[in-house]
Design a protein that fits this description.
The protein has about 250 residues and is mainly alpha-helical. The chain folds into 2 domains: about 5-60, no CATH class; about 80-245, Phosphatidylinositol 3-/4-kinase, catalytic domain (Phosphatidylinositol 3-kinase Catalytic Subunit, Chain A, Domain 5), CATH 1.10.1070. It has 10 helices and 6 strands; from the N terminus they run αββββααββααααααα. The strands form 3 sheets. It has a two-stranded antiparallel ribbon with strand order 1-2. Strand 3 (about 50-55) and strand 4 form a beta hairpin. It is globular and about 55 Å long.
Length: about 250
């Protein structure tokens, strides 16, 4: 056994590895299985063997990471419930606020995941609809959805509820007035994306338009869910990530 294998065996022995030597069905119940595990070099624990989505084993790096920091053998997906709840809520919150503020340059290097479940966006160099590449209104990926447990999971349903609730809440008159007033007060601050790269009136009107005040609350809920769906299935995001990765080498 080489040193790398010895180190890996030692890590497994120190952590709660017993649960990872069994196979899980979709509901999370353990069933006997001696199948070998696939390796993820960047996580302490491998993706749980036998955790299936639509009949095939799913690679799930987000759940692997959360399990390595917040393992709970009694919780769904072996991730502490409060950590998973934080992950779901933070995904929903960032989806809505980055959409409304028109935050650009949302490639994967600008998205971080904390051990407590918080999804964090960083680098706000481009806002209010400005983007160095192609502006896309929202960033939510299939991998992030797998972190919930997939599209058929309760967590994904909760994510959609939280996203809709946040959007509806921010569409209330006093919230819109407050947000637009803050933006208007910053017109003379010399922000490139507010008063240099585009006329401030256009930036403010575009932000107001993203609230879709022409829609009823029910229609607004359907609208924001459609924005989420288009973001998940967008092939343009993959092109943006490829362009960003290539750009780092030049």
């Amino acid at each position: 056994m080489d040193s790398r294998q010895s180190s890996r065996s030692k890590d497994d022995a120190e952590g709660p590895s017993e649960a990872f030597n069994t196979t899980l069905d979709v509901s999370g119940k353990q069933v006997s299985d001696s199948a070998s595990r696939k390796s993820h070099r960047w996580f302490k624990y491998d993706s749980l063997p036998g955790l299936h989505q639509k009949g095939s084993v799913s690679e799930n790096p987000i759940q692997d990471f959360l399990r390595s920091a917040a393992y709970d053998e009694s919780a769904p997906y072996f991730v502490k419930k409060d950590v998973m709840a934080t992950y779901v809520k933070s995904c929903a919150g960032y989806c809505v606020i980055t959409y409304l503020l028109g935050v650009g340059d949302r490639h994967l290097d600008n998205m971080l995941l904390h051990q407590n479940g918080h999804l964090l966006h960083c680098d706000y160099s481009f806002i209010l609809g400005q983007d160095p590449k192609t502006y896309l209104p929202m960033r939510i990926t299939e991998e992030m959805i797998k972190g919930f447990g997939g599209r058929d999971s309760d967590n994904f349903a909760k994510f959609l509820v939280f996203t809709g609730a946040a959007f509806i809440t921010l569409r209330r008159h006093n919230n819109i007035h407050s947000l637009l007033s803050h933006i208007n007060n910053m017109v003379h601050a010399g922000m490139g994306d507010l008063s240099i790269n585009q006329p401030p009136e256009e930036a403010i009107l575009a932000m107001r338009g993203r609230f879709r005040l022409d829609l009823s609350d029910d229609d607004a809920m359907a609208y924001i869910e459609d924005v989420v769906e288009k973001s998940i299935t967008s092939k343009m995001w993959r092109a943006v990530d490829v362009m960003h990765s290539l750009g780092k080498h030049f």
